[in-house]
From TrEMBL:
Coiled-coil features, chain-numbered ranges: 561-640
Keywords for the protein's UniProt record, in alphabetical order: Coiled coil, Kelch repeat, Lipid-binding, Repeat
Residues in ACB domain copies: 12-103
Region called Disordered, residue ranges: 652-671
GO annotation (BP), single: lipid transport
Leader sequence residues: none
Gene3D superfamilies noted in UniProt: 1.20.80.10, Kelch-type beta propeller (2.120.10.80)
Origin species: Trapa natans
Lineage: Eukaryota, Viridiplantae, Streptophyta, Embryophyta, Tracheophyta
Similarity comment: family membership: Belongs to the ACBP family.
Protein name, per record: ACB domain-containing protein
GO molecular function, one term: fatty-acyl-CoA binding
Length: 671
């Protein structure tokens, strides 16, 4: 569509200088970033450099920067285009974008730039490349800042904000009295206010209701009551945990949950924030059995309930639907293979047609499988997942932002999950958004997660959880554009939606090539409006190779970026494994050291015992020798006594026979 051109204003080159000042090249307070798209900014930058500096003679940027390389390529591709021609094309493109630019620029037209050839200002800077310092000449000129919308922004500088970074969990400044720490509670958002109801603390079920203002980050407790005209409503105020809290028609619906007063059928409670009253909704049909830690998904005006654990601690995988307009229950036996019975899983809906079930547990088994239910055909399927396949977990929480499903927390019997992951529900590609360290509330089970809007951007808000102790902290994450863009990996379509997914994929590819396409059209339109045929031919001849080069470099940069991301992910995984292995080795070394110290102590004790035994042995040997000596002496004495006895006995008999009188002593003895 042709645009009107401004016919008034100064002649060249003053007209070009006024246009460049208005576009943001001359220190204008209005930045070019907020006025033009990326492709127009890139073209204006190249023409401005060609007009003010001349042909590109600076070396190609040696550092890896897609923006700087694109700017250099754009300028270098103009070759030896005449400065006057570059000025005229610059103004021509600006007039097509904003026909009334000159009337708007009257208040801040900058002084013209001096002579083209004399305007080369170089600065010699020390650049570190491959570990060596090298002097590199850089051209200093007035440049526009081209924002690559596919890249992350690190910091938002617009005013004081507690949420200043993308893809990173932060704790906002909380005011007011925080609710009691808990897990397996319910949370939902109504009009920028997050309501938290019930939960479990130290095995005790809760029924308090708190609200967090997501603008001032202030907690307050709601003094809720039950309807006086309904005697049965007193049950709606019973403490519970493992329930689901759903916002519907500016009211809260608390569906099922574990209570001390166990009932056979599922109960749906309703809270009206206007009157601060609870009530039990009357339903029709056959309600499901009572349960907790199930999933409840709002699809249009219906609630889809799947799985959970009943009052007998049995795991379920049945499927029920509650029509909120007629309040009628229906149970469905869907075709295909449903997910195995489980609890602590998460669920989401895509395109108001597909119900996705992820994770959960059954007894000691934890899952990381993904199941999809086509609500129109009521058929289960188990598609192939791609990307960074998440680990098995239960007790996690999830919310959807567009076609992206963010999942936080959860864990198994050993550890909590530290990664915040996102699934693109059109391509079924997983990716990691953020990672936390240590035993923090974000790596817990039974936490809640809601999505809200803050300063015009979507934010994720988590609360509570249990990881060995109960938490009541609030954390906020602002997803970046990278987190919510469709993945460019191979597609894995949902059942029955092949055409829809292909349309989304084509739309993604079209969006990626938007810059090249628009740039081609812009160049062709600009060249077509030229009255000088030789100039037009020259312009086209110079820009066609430029576009081809830009596209090839963009593809190469994207390929390198994907490789770098994959390499970074692998390195992170290897580093994590190495750290875990190092921790295990450290523990093993500490254990070996303790064992060695114990063995050394035991060895020393044994050496002392051996020395004592040797001393005792020596004493025993000495005693043995003394004993042997005494025994020999005794034997000699006994032998002598025996010999003497024999002699005495022998002499008495013979004396008697010979008539010899006995010695005097014997005689006395006989007397």
């Amino acid at each position: 569509m042709a645009m009107a051109r401004a016919s008034s204003g100064p002649a060249y080159p003053e007209r070009f200088y006024a246009a460049s000042s208005y576009a943001g090249f001359g220190g204008s307070p209005k930045g070019v970033n907020s006025r033009f798209s990326n492709d127009v900014s890139l073209l204006l930058y190249a023409l401005h450099q060609q007009a003010t500096v001349g042909p590109c003679k600076v070396p190609k940027p040696r550092g890896w920067s897609p923006v700087e390389q694109s700017k250099w390529t754009s300028w270098h591709g103009l070759g030896n285009m005449d400065s006057a021609e570059a000025m005229r094309l610059f103004v021509k493109i600006l007039e097509e974008e904003e026909p009334s630019w000159y009337s708007k620029a009257s208040d801040h037209i900058a002084d013209p730039v001096v002579d083209v050839e004399a305007n080369h200002t170089y600065k010699r800077e020390s650049v570190i490349e491959n570990g060596e310092h090298a002097a590199q000449e850089k051209l200093i000129s007035s440049e526009i800042e081209i924002i690559d919308k596919t890249q992350d922004k690190d910091v938002i500088s617009e005013g004081p904000s507690p949420i200043a970074v993308y893809d990173q969990w932060v704790a906002p400044p909380i005011q007011g009295a925080c609710p009691r720490a808990r897990y397996e509670h319910g949370a939902a958002v109504i009009r920028d206010k997050m309501f938290v109801y019930g939960g479990n603390h130290n095995g005790r079920y809760l029924n308090d209701l708190h609200v967090l203002d997501l603008r001032s980050w202030t907690w307050s407790k709601v003094d809720a009551k039950f309807k006086e005209d309904a005697a049965e409503s007193i049950g709606s105020f019973a403490p519970c945990s493992g329930h689901s809290l759903i916002a519907w028609n500016n009211k809260l619906l608390s569906v099922a949950g574990h209570t001390k007063r166990s009932s056979e059928s599922m109960t749906v409670r309703e809270f009206d924030p206007q009157t601060c009253t609870w009530s039990i909704l009357k339903t029709y049909g056959k309600p499901p059995v009572s349960r907790g830690c199930h999933s409840v998904t709002l699809v249009g005006n219906t609630l889809v309930i799947f799985g959970g654990q009943d009052t007998k601690r049995s795991f379920l995988n049945d499927l029920h639907i509650l029509d909120l307009e007629t309040m009628t229950w229906d149970e469905f036996d869907a075709a295909g293979n449903p997910p195995s019975p489980r609890t602590g899983h998460s669920a989401a809906v895509h395109a108001e047609r597909y119900l996705l079930i992820f994770g959960g547990r059954s007894h000691a088994t934890f899952f990381n499988d993904l199941h999809v239910l086509d609500i129109q055909t009521m058929e289960w399927s188990k598609p192939t997942q791609q990307g960074d396949i998440p680990s098995s977990r239960a007790g996690h929480a999830g919310v959807t932002v567009g076609e992206n499903w963010f999942i936080v927390g959860g864990g198994d019997n050993n550890n909590g999950v530290s990664e915040t992951i996102v699934l693109n529900m059109s391509t079924l590609v997983w990716s990691v958004v953020a990672t936390v360290q240590g035993r923090v509330p974000l790596a817990t089970e039974g936490l809640s997660l809601v999505v809200s809007s803050y300063n015009g951007e979507d934010v994720l808000v988590s609360f509570g959880g249990y990881n060995g102790h109960y938490n009541n902290e609030v954390n906020v994450l602002k997803p970046s554009q990278r987190s919510i863009l469709p993945s460019k990996m191979d597609e894995s379509t949902l059942p029955g939606s092949t055409s829809a997914v292909h349309n989304i994929a084509h739309a993604t590819r079209d969006a990626e090539s938007k810059t090249e396409t628009v740039l081609v059209e812009r160049i062709r339109e600009t060249a077509a409006g030229n009255t000088l045929d030789p100039v037009k031919t020259k312009f086209q001849e110079r820009f066609e190779p430029l576009l081809t080069t830009l596209k090839a470099e963009k593809e190469g940069i994207e390929y390198l970026l994907n490789e770098e991301k994959a390499l970074t992910l692998r390195l992170k995984q290897e580093l994590s494994e190495a750290e875990a292995h190092n921790v295990d080795l450290h523990k093993e070394v500490q254990s070996l050291r303790s064992q060695l110290a114990a063995e050394q102590s035991r060895s020393f004790k044994l050496e002392v015992d051996v020395a004592e035994m040797r001393q005792k042995q020596q004493m025993m040997e000495a005693l043995q020798k003394e004993l042997e000596l005494l025994q020999r002496q005794k034997a000699v004495s006994e032998q002598a006594i025996l010999s003497a006895s024999q002699r005495q006995s022998s002499g008495g008999v013979w004396s008697w026979l010979a008539g010899t009188p006995p010695p005097p002593g014997m005689k006395e003895n006989n007397a």
